[in-house]
Amino acid sequence: MSWFPEKKSGQSWIHRVCQRILKNGPIPKHVAFIMDGNRRFAVKNHMERAEGHFRGFDKLSETLEWCLDIGITEVTVYAFSIENFKRSKDEVDCLMELARQKFTRLMQEKELIQKHQVCVRVLGNLSLLPLDIQEVIADCVQFSKDNERAVLNVCFSYTSREEICAAMREIAEGVQLGLIKDSDVSEDLMEKCLYTSQSPHPDLLIRTSGEVRLSDFLLWQTSFSCLSFVEVLWPEFSIWHLYGAILHYQRNYPAIQRAIDSAMSDRERRQRESDCSCVLSDHKSSDQSNYSMTEQILQYAKHREARLEQFLQHVNSKRLCYFKELVSRHKTTGV
C-alpha cells in the first residue's frame, strides 16, 4: 500500500455528516499517534509478527488520509523506539527491512508527495540505524522539506529522554563555544533544540491497544496535549476511533487552552525576570550609564535574541549538513 493513497470514490453520507458536526468545533491541527498493538494483533489473528507490522503500516497510510480529510495538517507517529533494539534479532531485522522497503517505496512515489505537498521528517538518533536506511531517509527528508500543505513526522530510533539529552548536549556545546551564555538557557531554548523544533506541540495524542502510558514518547511536547487512550489494537483502529478522539479533544479544549495560556504567561514572566537579573548584575558597567533600567533590559533582551538566533542557525546547519552528506553519499555510491 502507498504511503499516500489516492482518494477512494467518495465517503459515505454518515462520514460526511460526522465531519461537518466535528468541524463546528476546534479541530486539532497536530495529532500524535502511538501505534501500539501490531504484535498482539498478529498473535490474535494467528499470523507472523512481521505481518502484524505490515498491517500496522497499512493502517498508518489509511489514517493519514482520514486526518487530511478532516483538516489535521500534521501527524507525528512513534514508529520505532530505541528500546525496540532490545527485541529479538529477528524482529529488529524485520522492522529494519520494513523501514527499508517503505522509505524506498516512498521515494518511488515522488509524484504523490508533490501532489499532496507533504513534508516528511524523520526524528530520532538516526546514527543508530544501518547506513543504507539512513541514506534513504535522508533522501526523503531532503526531497520533501519545502512542502507545506501537510507534515508527517516519523519518530524512528527515538525516545524522548534521548531527545532531551541531545538537546542538552547542543546547548552545552553552544555555551562552550561562546555562542550563548549560561543565562540564555531557558525552556524556550530547550524546545528549539529538540528534534521536533520545527513543529508545534501536538494538540492531541492517541495511543491504541489499551495501554495508558506514553512510553518515552514526546514527554516534553505533550505537557498540554489532550490524551486519548483507545482500547483497540492499532491495525484495528478505525475512523470512528479518530472521530471519538477528536470529540474528546473538543470537550477538553477550553481547559487545555487555559492551561497553555497560563504556562506561556509564566514563561514570559520568567524570561523578563531573568533579563532583569542579568542587567542588574552588570549594572555597574560604564557602557550602561547613559541608559535607564528599562532601556538596558530591552537592549539586553535584543542582544540575547541575536545570540540565540546565531546559535540556532549553528544547530540547524549541523542537522542540515548531516542529511546533505547522506544524500550525497547515496547518489555517489548508488547503494
Structural notes for this entry:
The chain has 335 residues and is an alpha/beta fold. It has a domain at 13-176 and 198-266: Undecaprenyl pyrophosphate synthetase (3-Layer(aba) Sandwich), CATH 3.40.1180. The protein is built from ten helices and six strands. The protein has helices at 13-22, 38-44, 49-70, 89-107, 110-116, 131-144, 160-176, 187-193, 239-281, 293-333, and strands at 30-34, 74-81, 118-123, 150-158, 204-207, 226-229. Strands 3-4-2-1-5-6 form a six-stranded parallel sheet, with helices on both faces. Strand 3, helix 6 and strand 4 (150-158) form a beta-alpha-beta unit. The model has no long low-confidence stretch (mean pLDDT 92).
